[in-house]
Amino acid sequence: MTDHGTLTEGPLVRADARLDRRRRFGSLFDAARSGRTGVHLPTLDVPPADPAALYGDAHRTEVAGEIEANEVDVVRHFTRLSQMNFAIDTALYSLGSCTMKHNPRINEEIARLAGFNDTHPYAPVHLSQGNLELMWRLEQALKALTGFARVTLQPSAGANGELTGALMIRAAHVKAGNPRKNVLVPDSAHGTNPATAHFAGYDVVELASNAHGTLDLAELASKLNEDVAALMITVPNTLGVFEERILDIAKMVHDKGAYLYLDGANFNAFVGKVRPADMGVDVMHMNLHKTFSTPHGGGGPGAGPVGVAPALVPFLPVPTIENDRGIFRFDVDRPDTIGKMRTFYGNFGVLVRALTYIVSYGNRIHEVAENAVLNANYIRKKLEPFYHLKYTAPSYHEVVFDDKKQAALGLHNIDVAKRLMDFGFHPPTMSFPLIVPGALMIEPTESEPREELDAFIDAMIAIAKECETAPEIVHGAPHTTPVRRLDEAGAAREASRPGSFAPVLRAPVR
Amino acid sequence: MTDHGTLTEGPLVRADARLDRRRRFGSLFDAARSGRTGVHLPTLDVPPADPAALYGDAHRTEVAGEIEANEVDVVRHFTRLSQMNFAIDTALYSLGSCTMKHNPRINEEIARLAGFNDTHPYAPVHLSQGNLELMWRLEQALKALTGFARVTLQPSAGANGELTGALMIRAAHVKAGNPRKNVLVPDSAHGTNPATAHFAGYDVVELASNAHGTLDLAELASKLNEDVAALMITVPNTLGVFEERILDIAKMVHDKGAYLYLDGANFNAFVGKVRPADMGVDVMHMNLHKTFSTPHGGGGPGAGPVGVAPALVPFLPVPTIENDRGIFRFDVDRPDTIGKMRTFYGNFGVLVRALTYIVSYGNRIHEVAENAVLNANYIRKKLEPFYHLKYTAPSYHEVVFDDKKQAALGLHNIDVAKRLMDFGFHPPTMSFPLIVPGALMIEPTESEPREELDAFIDAMIAIAKECETAPEIVHGAPHTTPVRRLDEAGAAREASRPGSFAPVLRAPVR
Amino acid sequence: MRYIPNSPDERAALLAAVGASSVDDLFATVPRAVYHREAPPLPPPASEIEVRRDFGALAARDASLSEWTSFLGGGLYSHHSPAFVSQLLLRGEFLTAYTPYQPEVSQGTLTAVYEFQTHIALLTGQDIANASMYEGASAFVEAVLMAERLTKKKTKVVVSQGIHPEYLLCLRTYLANFPFTIVEIPLGEDGATDAAALAAAVDDATFAVALQSPNAFGVVESWDGLAAAAHAKNALAIGVVNEMFSLAVLQPPGARGVDIACGEAASFGVPPSFGGPLVGFLACRDAFKRQIPGRLVGKTVDADGSPAFCLTLSTREQHIRREKATSNICTNQGLFALAATMTLSALGKQGLRETAMQCLAKTEYLKAGVKSLTGPFSLAFSGKTFNEFALRCGPGVEAVLARAEEKKILAGVPFARLDPLGAGHRDLLLVAVTERVPRAGLDGLLDVLRSF
Amino acid sequence: MRYIPNSPDERAALLAAVGASSVDDLFATVPRAVYHREAPPLPPPASEIEVRRDFGALAARDASLSEWTSFLGGGLYSHHSPAFVSQLLLRGEFLTAYTPYQPEVSQGTLTAVYEFQTHIALLTGQDIANASMYEGASAFVEAVLMAERLTKKKTKVVVSQGIHPEYLLCLRTYLANFPFTIVEIPLGEDGATDAAALAAAVDDATFAVALQSPNAFGVVESWDGLAAAAHAKNALAIGVVNEMFSLAVLQPPGARGVDIACGEAASFGVPPSFGGPLVGFLACRDAFKRQIPGRLVGKTVDADGSPAFCLTLSTREQHIRREKATSNICTNQGLFALAATMTLSALGKQGLRETAMQCLAKTEYLKAGVKSLTGPFSLAFSGKTFNEFALRCGPGVEAVLARAEEKKILAGVPFARLDPLGAGHRDLLLVAVTERVPRAGLDGLLDVLRSF
Ligand SMILES: Cc1ncc(COP(=O)(O)O)c(C=O)c1O
Ligand SMILES: Cc1ncc(COP(=O)(O)O)c(C=O)c1O
Fold it and tell me: For a substitution probing ligand 2, which of D330, D331, D332, D333 has the most ligand atoms within 8 Å of its CB?
């Protein structure tokens, strides 16, 4: 770490934002262009159709309000837009729970091979054998890493995987004669867990965490009964703490005939080191866009494969992929299936990337977990003198500080986060876990090198000092981003006003 | 154009540069990393070799000082580096004479097809027919656009094309019995012209331009004699002015048995509208990276095909590409050839992009020239009230202002250029033409949309005003770039000091 | 290791800094019974050279649409994707960012999402659209659930059998645990939903009525009829679209009274990629915005008063509302919503129209060719179509596919592929045509049919 | 139009603004006799769909190295290019910028060039290197011309016949009009330059002596011998390298007294692209820096005192020095110098060594296999090699190529391809091996040879 005297530089003279080509040029819908287009087709080589005659009054003559722009306009627009984003490729992206690890470039190359990228899901199966084999291989690899009987690759993201799992659990209970009523969810859980339980038709019963931030076994015992369909937990939990008593928990759950659901969002903490099935987990989703390095793409796509214990295999969504001595086929003939979670077979392109990643690490993939945990602990060690840590149990892949020290100076987690942007880093997660008010949830991942960790630590320490020496700078941050701090509350107020949709939620038709 | 009251914004509070991850992180050689690598090979599948035994004392055990970095480090480093560049994809790049037009993305896609990109120049000719046909087609297209008898695609860039042309001229004179002594070059010429003439073994005789900035025919007549091998001109010249008397000039040159060489750097002003061979030009290079949209790549590569009149065909470099009824072959059996300008056949990947561009425009390519000229004239019209124009003859693809007005206020072309950066634009060319002191040579190209031209014009006008109202801001510019104004003179002084090579011209070995 | 920059020495230094003597120390709270010290049961790491070789060989076993003449559709249509799209998607600032929770460093993503919302709203004729759904089928399910929340205490949803069978299967899957009835309405002779049956099925218990147009057999349906049937009983009308280019020549659902539009927007430059990732959408009236699932981007100002974008109305979402959220969706289809936005920006008004007109003209050409055949083929339905139609194959669907395959033609999608658990329409081949197919390709398919 | 954003209406507005009544007005000073109002004689514009189809068909007619087992070399070696390289090269900020004349907005390019200069200097063992030359042959010519300027009034250059024949042909082409003599020294039995002949040829008139190592036949030459021969007569020693990986296992020219190193650096991740664009380099001693051709980047400070890079020593260059410049080069190979820099950064110390060791081991394996053959093949020379060797083919080179082709193997480069105007070595096939070829590929080639 570096010790710097001055933390800020002198003033800069920017050109008026409206005249600065690099900033605030708005949406492509703003500019008054006309008569332009950016796509040119071959000259029509068949007789033209007459849609007005064909469709009568159902004919539409134009999409009013649409853009009229040329390739030049469009390439520039999106290049400029991209330059206003922080990303993993630019610096450490500390957003906890999201596992913002490096996205290897070979994955992108492989996923773009025409034989994967430009293939149709309804092409004949004998002309899709490469695709089927790839999915089959990925299932085998995930089985090896989790210990489950089977894995469905169909769910579109983690939350969709949760729902798949919950629906299978419910189908199993229904088949056993009683769907049951409740799903237990700890108060530290991610929001998708209770939301999922609800969409699977269950009531959510919240479990209060104990003083270590982990499951309170007495609390669990008190809420566990024959009405409980499942317990949904996260390991390590959202505090980055491992459920030490996971084996006891599994036993308690199973003793009541309930299933143990594991939210695998934090699989990065133990991939290759612990097989969840060994811990008594019955069903678990994996976020391929977290543990297995597929890009987050500014919000998605992801993929949320779900592994299941033997008891739940009959309920898997269709189709499954079967290997008949090297000939791969889809199996839809599964009478107890829950059905389908989406069209086709899953986010295939994401699956390609994930398998590429897995084979690239092969039998050394456990080093991912080891280094993710090591890096998080290094940050914890260095920042503990400067930021308050509510739960002090050992950290795994992430560490959750809070703003208790800074709040005493009138500054909050959001101020620290915004100021961090002036240092070129993406802020930590603040919206959860709800049991840590003012949370700063930091997950560096294994792909951060030591000097980047140090640079991040330096910045966090510098900010902690600024909170004491120059609180107004922290409070007014960020200062150097394309836009300054936003009025998000105002946005929500305005957005919820009836009739405000344009230009608040979309560009108006000019 | 927009009228803005305030041209500058208030101060910003940047984080100390050493703590700001977005700026000034230096070269990859700076960081102390060890034991890392970013390339992983298959496990060696043959017995290892023993280089020490094989080579004895010629064996080298390591490349001391080399980087030790991982893919993560490298991807981030180059992503961050790129973010410190201005480029066409970010905004109008006014660098005159360089034809910084949009680089179409389909060109990049086509050039990356494995059947082009991953092919070897010494692969059997029957397994390279696609490549040969492509080169043959490009030659035909360039012949159609120039009117020349043949075009060689071999030269690596414009200057290399110039040399190819000059060597052919000399070979023709030699064959005719007298190599001759001089090449005439106007004082407005680009530096490569005299340099090329020198490297072809000629003495350079400079021609003073007339008051319109064009060739002075009396001056030309006075210097033209039987010692003159060629006249090298540029049309439109580097002022963007067309040589109105080009036909007379050609006749005068030919009457003395000399050749007329055209520097085709400015072909964008008349492609598809005028065929240079029709003007009496004997030899001309084209810069595919200018007129034909291949990317400039931060300095290159380019390609400099040379078209020649029938008299010079025997002297073309080998191989030429011949089409025997659909079977394409290399021809090396050309006794009068000057030889070769480089290995293999030229910058093939650049040729692919250029042909892609040409077929994309097809018989509408003259619109390129029309709009390039229109855009330049629009800028001229709007900026004439604010910047001095030494030569007022009609402008073609570019307009050359100068800093006469600003110099009166103590500011120079460089100050205007640097301040333009704060507005997000790349500055004009300033290093030439030498006949315009304080030059600001602006070439917008046809691919700039109206609103971008206006934004550039607004910025230039704003700066002209700032020169009056806030000269210190202009003088201290740029203020918002990753680094501030550089000490280039100091750099040159330091670089020329004996023994200063590291760290001035390269990183030292740590 | 591959993407772990720190070398063994550097790791050792970090370990020392945290005061651990070995990596195992860091995992001390994992029950020993399940903690693995040995390497996982996978092969050794594969290098890029091996990955290229191995995956290249897999990819070579699939039929790439760029090498075949393809008439495959069935809910996923292969349109031209401009060259710049896939290249700009590789920009790390887009590719490796996540959900734009922090607007000051995410204006790029946010602006693009705002544009996506605008494109979808304009195309569907709705007031607003969200930032994307996973894909068409789950978007449809979310639309149905949203309609239920908006209508209070109703229990029935009426759906056309012209909706993509996989969408209907998803609906049954997701709704299995809710006390709702799903009523399916068959198609008429012309291939469009039986209007009378539809109207008759809607009652006071009905919260939503849903149609797809063009439907799963390619036939254009009536939004007017849908809206009338739904609104007669205070139900909401849901319009499903999965060939978005149709909206450049056909009136959009929003303009014809449909309350919620949803479906698949992959036609806009999203690579088919064996069926995913695609990009679902959901658009609706302004009045419903508090019940919309997924992310929404809104326009606001920053501390300087400059315009800027941020995520908004997030109190609908799971991270705040938990079990009361409008959906459990979190990660969505960001990058491919961006791909669609880029493609739509380039297409623009002209390109949308021109592409749709070409699809239509080529389809009509092919249909006319089919009609002129004397052999064992016929158009299965008389209804109007856009760029896909159902071909009744006398010789059987598989025989046609096989003969076409010899000519490097993918003749179409057997309807049975869409509905493998169903039983009907086994003799129907869905034939879809886009601007990517030149006339020679159309004639090639006709030649194949003529050969029977 | 394609990449002309302004629509006809917008153009009309601009025309009006400049006060022209038509486009023709703008071209009024073009002599009417040569001014074309009609469209140029080219086909109509081709769309992206057509371009993909048409160029795709051309590309399909070429042998792509990713689909063949390739032993092609002869001055251009196909090594592994890390996946990230071609993707990052697509970033517009690199791709669409030009020469970094304005350092404040070009630190990205400038830093990368500084790194390129460093890599080349380290590899060659020289003090400095320039920002790139076009390719190997012209770099070699420029090195010779530079040596001439540095030695004053001398007239002779002595070159080994082991230098790539195309480099020698370029030398003759460029030097045709200078009063210099080129003396060529033949190779000895072992395939290395005849040391005695070399020493004998150097005299007081000699300004430069040049060798290539490994030479055009793959044989490793002696830098020591070169330097000794040159320095004995105050000439400069020029070392040519076109397989840069050799410098990870062989002493670099700079460490063995060679004054100027030059050649081709395309081995570092630059796609072969049918021979161009590649990336030439030129490196030398600090003392020669005022005579180096091409661009140079130097480190300095900005107005705040922060470190920063800029082009420097540009008074050597044509834009300032005109006919007195050290070269006429302007546009260089920027993007591919960047590709090489990226690749070298990833390779680093370990990757360079590991790659070179694999090339060497695989070549030795193949050579051992050849030696064990009983058929009509032999190693043409006894000299040590790195990753390429000359195979004497009893059955004729073409017969070997043809039989290998049946197995999808490109067996090597006939020496005649390097020297089409020459006459010697018609029975030699140059066989090059890189880390891209697995053992099965090596055995495949041996099987082909064994079949004769
Ligand atoms: C702990 C946890 N669970 C579940 C999810 C939901 O996963 P997804 O976003 O892939 O739907 C997340 C994602 O952010 C998470 O952090
Ligand atoms: C007028 C003129 N001539 C010649 C050249 C040299 O061309 P190149 O840089 O391609 O070698 C240039 C390039 O900048 C130029 O502007």
Answer: D330
